[in-house]
């Protein structure tokens, strides 16, 4: 079970997806539905963007993650599911070193980020560097008490971008990327806190996207949103995988089923099973997974 | 193939689910139960119970229709015809209830496979009901047996095929009830027997009709009756395949194409 999604180098990753022609700035295409489904059916793993190897993590003496081995395929969505306290959020937070903010925590093992093979949890690695490359979106929308524009420009300014035209361009691109540009383009100078929950969440996604991260982490991104806002975020996640690698923690199993290519089930700090989402939700290999997703757990 | 054959729903069967996993088995003997939500348990077991009941009725329809034909029993034929709407009612009810269950409970994994299997079993059983209806209609119109009667000429085969196909059906429905892959496999293995009987019976009828083509109409009807029984074997096989997929999560490999 620890061999997991093997790093089989896909020979033609999403090559078929050139039917709709419309090419975005990154040169990625919008795949048609049948291709998405086809892709998900065959669930060929793209090359790894990140690989967790023998990852252990402790809060004090409490071991929250036990020997996690998991491949995160590039430009695909990997969902982490499992009951509360199973370690899925803890695992997610390792990717951008959120635990460093808390005293008395300890990492062991590695999360290797490709292509340069940086160990994200290595003591030699600067967490600030890590967070530049790996964005995060939280459960509750948490915009800064600033204007929409300043929220998105924040990370860019931190990086020393001062040129007004460049800032404006990149903010617009990020807002478009999070499918909220049309809703806020006339109120860029309004406070982000005046927006609706779903809009705030998409501004937060824009903020994360602005610095062009390689991996985007979502921790329960829609649990505070209504179904329509949820659908918009889910649609966005599906689109985002063209540009970034997505790792999402969700309590909503149907959401995992809808948005992810791969699903990993965690229980009591261990990774129980990971497979193509289509496989997990029709015929999981482990009984524990089956019991959890069919509501027989506990 | 006796008319009174009934499937006895052996509720709470002890058939284990697929390869037993000794590590975690808080789920009781019934693979459809054990949900935190009792409503889900009830919905799923109700669906299965209705499908099994429907199976019992349909098996009886097949047996009765063939008996009516062989014995020239007009009243039995009419009984079969009068019960056909009941079979259809079961099917539409199961169709509605499985759809509702999917919409309201969003089953996944084994629950989803079971729901779909039940919906498709209902469809297969409904078709078996149709075949029985056709045989019963033929029986109702056939009139008294004559000296040269195609039905009499192949009575042996009709009887044997009815026996084979109802046995297959019974095992297929039991396989669903008990979530038993062994029973399902047994059904798959027997389909060839029905096919072989059908071919032999056809040859028999051909030599019959060559000797005496006065009974062409009745011969054609007899061919349809035989074909109906052969189809019933196929439906039983389809049910068994659904059960295998439900229990094991793997699609049984398709047997080679029939000629």
Q: Find the CATH topology of chain B.
A: Methane Monooxygenase Hydroxylase, Chain G, domain 1
Low-confidence stretches of chain A: 1-39
CATH architectural arrangement of chain B: Up-down Bundle
CATH superfamily of the domain at 33-139 and 216-293 in chain A: P-loop containing nucleotide triphosphate hydrolases
- CATH uppermost class of the domain at 33-139 and 216-293 in chain A: Alpha Beta
Q: Most extensive interface: pair and counts?
A: A-B, 19 and 21 residues
User: Which strand order do you get reading across the main beta sheet of chain A?
Assistant: 6-7-8-3-9-10
Main pleated sheet of chain B: none
Number of strands of chain B: 0
What share of residues are in beta strands of chain A?
Answer: 15-25%
> What fold name stands as the CATH topology of the domain at 33-139 and 216-293 in chain A?
Rossmann fold
Can you put this structure into words, describing what you see?
The complex is a heterodimer of chains A (298) and B (259). By secondary structure, chain A is of the alpha/beta class. Chain A has a domain of 185 residues: 3-Layer(aba) Sandwich (Rossmann fold), CATH 3.40.50.300. In chain A, 33% of the residues lie in helices and 22% in strands. Chain A is built from eleven helices and ten strands. In chain A, the strands form two sheets. Chain A has a six-stranded mixed sheet, sandwiched between helices. Chain A has a four-stranded antiparallel sheet with strand order 2-1-4-5, with helices on one face. In chain A, α4 packs across α5 and α5 crosses α7. The radius of gyration of chain A is 19 Å and the shape is globular. Chain A starts with 32 loop residues before the first helix and ends in a 5-residue tail after the last helix. Chain B has 259 residues and is mainly α. Chain B has a single domain, classed as Phosphate transport system protein phou homolog 2, domain 2 (Methane Monooxygenase Hydroxylase, Chain G, domain 1, Up-down Bundle), CATH 1.20.58.220. Chain B contains seven helices and no strands. The longest helix of chain B has 34 residues. Chain B is elongated. Chains A and B meet through α9 and α11 of A and α3 of B.
């Amino acid at each position: 079970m620890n061999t997991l999604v093997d790093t089989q180098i896909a020979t033609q990753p999403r090559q078929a997806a050139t039917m709709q022609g419309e090419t975005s700035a990154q040169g990625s295409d919008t795949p048609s539905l049948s291709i998405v489904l086809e892709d998900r059916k065959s669930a060929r793993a793209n090359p790894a963007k990140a690989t967790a190897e023998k990852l252990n993590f402790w809060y004090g003496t409490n071991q929250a993650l036990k020997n996690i081995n998991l491949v995160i395929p590039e430009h695909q969505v990997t969902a982490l599911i499992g009951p509360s306290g199973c370690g899925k959020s803890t695992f997610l937070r390792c990717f951008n070193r959120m635990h460093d903010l808390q005293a008395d925590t300890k990492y062991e093992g590695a999360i290797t980020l490709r292509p340069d093979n940086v160990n994200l949890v290595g003591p030699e690695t600067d967490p600030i560097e890590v967070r530049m490359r790996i964005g995060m979106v939280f459960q509750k929308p948490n915009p800064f008490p600033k204007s929409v524009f300043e929220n998105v420009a924040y990370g860019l300014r931190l990086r020393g971008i001062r040129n007004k035209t460049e800032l404006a361009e990149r903010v617009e691109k990020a807002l478009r990327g999070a499918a909220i540009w049309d809703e806020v383009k006339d109120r860029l100078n309004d406070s982000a806190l005046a927006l609706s929950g779903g809009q705030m969440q998409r501004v937060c996604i824009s903020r994360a996207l602005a610095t062009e991260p390689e991996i985007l982490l979502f921790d329960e991104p829609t649990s505070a949103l209504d179904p329509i806002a949820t659908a918009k975020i889910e649609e966005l996640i599906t689109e985002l995988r063209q540009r970034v690698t997505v790792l999402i923690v969700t309590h909503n199993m149907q959401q995992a089923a809808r948005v992810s290519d791969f699903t990993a089930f965690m229980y009591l700090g261990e990774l129980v099973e990971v497979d193509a989402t289509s496989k997990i939700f029709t015929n999981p290999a482990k009984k524990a997974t089956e019991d959890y997703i069919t509501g027989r757990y506990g | 193939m006796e008319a009174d054959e009934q499937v006895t729903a052996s509720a709470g069967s002890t058939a284990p689910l697929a390869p037993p996993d000794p590590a975690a088995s808080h789920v009781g003997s019934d693979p459809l139960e054990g949900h935190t939500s009792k409503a889900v348990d009830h919905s799923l077991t109700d669906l299965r119970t209705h499908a099994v009941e429907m199976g019992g009725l349909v098996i009886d329809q097949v047996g009765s229709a063939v008996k009516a034909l062989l014995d020239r029993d007009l009243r039995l034929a009419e009984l079969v015809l009068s019960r056909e709407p009941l079979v259809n009612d079961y099917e539409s009810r199961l169709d509605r209830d499985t759809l509702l269950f999917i919409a309201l409970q969003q089953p996944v994994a084994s629950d989803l496979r079971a729901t779909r299997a039940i919906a498709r079993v209902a469809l297969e059983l409904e078709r078996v009901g149709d075949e029985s209806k056709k045989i019963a209609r033929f029986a109702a119109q056939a009139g008294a047996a004559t000296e040269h009667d195609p039905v009499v000429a192949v009575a042996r085969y009709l009887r044997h095929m009815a026996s084979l196909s109802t046995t297959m059906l019974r095992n297929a429905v039991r396989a669903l009830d008990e979530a038993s892959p062994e029973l399902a496999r047994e059904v798959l293995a027997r389909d060839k027997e029905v096919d072989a009987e059908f071919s032999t019976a056809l040859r028999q009828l051909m030599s019959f009709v060559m000797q005496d083509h006065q009974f062409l109409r009745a011969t054609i009807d007899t061919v349809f009756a035989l074909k109906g029984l052969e189809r019933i074997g196929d439906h039983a096989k389809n049910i068994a395949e659904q059960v295998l997929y439900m229990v094991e999560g793997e699609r049984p490999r398709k047997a080679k194409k029939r000629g």
